[in-house]
Design brief:
With 470 residues, this protein is α/β, with parallel strands linked by helices. The protein is built from 14 helices and 22 strands. Helix 4 packs antiparallel against helix 8 and helix 6 packs across helix 7. The mean pLDDT is 91.
């Protein structure tokens, strides 16, 4: 076996790993890379650092764009095979990839209007901006596999998708390969979910393997907020919408995070007797994702399934309103009564939420509640800075008078303890090598030192493009 790292190598985004079993090539994830050095690599290697037509199979851990976002471009570059993933991942990837194609279409119109191409591309046709027709070709080749079923994809190799938590349909991927009369195995963690997360079941255990590719997003952090999500929401709503007649703006990712939030708001309104403040969900993508979560409720945890049976739905409750048009979105920013506005993106980087924040940032009766991670230099990260007094948003300088608060009770990523639990399923004496990926360098180094103390050896932190013979 040969393993190469073309994404999520000493960085969080762009998960992409190439596993070669003799002359058979498997791509595990094909995600969008947000790293600043991406453009330099594309100038040297092209869109992909390998011939897409030579890939035999793609395995997808889950639907998030940093794991799936380049799959349409893979077909555009000549790939003709299948994408294997879980059943919910097919539907979630479809809406996310079509949403990306819509963003690309708007980007092309902007290029056509301004006449300014990226420096390294000579025409719009060579820009890595796939359209809806490329997404359709890709989705038509997605093949769903059941969880925990061993599937033979070539004469001497099998794959098993193991529930990982983190997101509806997310999987750890186990590959077994018959070699010299024996079986060698490798597991790709994908993103490790956290225990007791709203809606989702806990990650399933993985078997002992020869090689492990392990994410390290939270390799040096533990979730700081241990409150029950319903209790946390009740306290925030009481303080910011009832004790004072204010509004709460919640930047939230449309797929996964928004559904966990709506589910807990539903439980809060049903069980806690709190005044049902109006809730506006301002994201067409979130509406589509919510419908998919209802469709695949059999994949959710026992608590969620029982709640759905009792209430005949997971997300619909009194005073919940889905906003469809941009006109409706603009109008709700000046809604006169206390309310909650949930909108994407979670990092306040474009999307409708940027308008809501711009309209409310100077309002001392407004609260901006962050429920997820924000990367450096995004507007969300700037807002969370303790010393922020003013900032430029939508081209205008604004004073920051709104209340800025955060909670990580809705983070879908397993923290340091969850990652330790994941790797503790392996025998340090049997595991031949551990590859740490999908994390910042400091996070990887911290996690590396922890598992070294546990007796794990041969721990690698691959650089982009690095290749290993297994």
């Amino acid at each position: 076996m040969k393993l190469s790292f073309f994404g999520a190598a000493r960085q969080v985004t762009g998960s992409m790993f190439l596993l070669e079993l003799d002359d058979y090539r498997i791509l595990i994830d094909c995600g969008t890379d947000l790293d600043s050095s991406k453009e330099e690599r594309e100038m040297e290697y092209g869109m992909f650092p390998f011939d897409a037509s030579m890939i035999n199979l793609v395995l997808l851990t889950h639907a998030h764009i940093d794991h799936s976002g380049q799959i349409p471009n893979l077909y555009r570059e000549g790939y003709e095979g299948q994408v294997l993933c879980s059943e919910p991942t097919v539907d979630l990837a479809e809406i996310l990839l079509y949403d990306s194609a819509g963003l690309h279409q708007r980007r092309i119109k902007k290029i056509q209007k301004s006449g300014k191409l990226s420096k390294k591309y000579k025409s719009i046709e060579t820009e890595p901006l796939y359209m809806s027709n490329h997404v359709k070709i890709a989705i038509d080749n997605f093949v769903p596999l059941a969880f925990n079923r061993r599937f033979k994809f070539k004469d001497n190799a099998w794959v098993t998708f193991i529930p990982a938590g983190h997101l509806l349909g997310a999987a750890h991927i186990l590959i077994e390969y018959e070699k010299d009369g024996g079986i060698e195995s490798i597991c790709f963690s994908g993103d490790v979910g956290r225990k007791n997360y709203p809606l989702l079941s806990d990650p399933d255990p993985v078997p002992e393997v020869d090689y492990l590719v392990c994410e390290t997003t939270y390799g040096q952090r533990r979730h700081s907020d241990q409150d029950d999500p319903v209790d946390k929401l009740k306290k925030i709503i009481q303080e910011n919408c009832i004790d004072k007649p204010g509004r709460i703006i919640i930047p939230s990712f449309s797929v996964g995070r928004t559904q966990a939030l709506l589910y807990k708001l539903n439980k809060l309104y049903e069980s806690q007797g709190i005044k049902p403040i109006k809730v506006f969900t301002d994201s067409p993508l979130a509406r589509s994702s919510t419908e998919i979560h209802e469709k695949y409720s059999r994949y959710l945890n026992e608590e969620a399934r029982e709640f759905k049976e009792l209430e005949e739905g997971l997300f619909d409750f009194e005073n919940l309103h889905y906003l469809k048009s941009s006109k409706e979105s603009a109008a709700v920013s000046s809604h006169s009564e206390p309310c909650i506005i949930i909108s994407s993106s979670g990092m306040v980087q474009g999307g409708r939420v940027e308008h809501h924040v711009a309209e409310n940032i100077e309002n001392s009766y407004a609260t901006i509640l962050f429920i997820g991670y924000t990367t450096e230099n995004t507007l969300g990260a700037k807002l969370r800075s303790k010393d922020i007094k003013e900032l430029v948003i939508k081209g205008a300088r604004k004073e920051v008078n709104a209340n800025i608060i955060s909670t990580d009770v809705f983070s879908g990523h397993g923290d340091l303890d969850d990652l330790i639990d994941f790797i503790d399923q392996q025998d340090p004496e049997k595991l031949k090598k551990v590859f740490l990926v999908h994390g910042e360098t400091d996070s990887m180094l911290n996690f590396k030192s922890i598992i070294e103390e546990k007796g794990f050896k041969n721990i690698e932190m691959p650089d982009w493009g690095e290749q290993f013979e297994l």
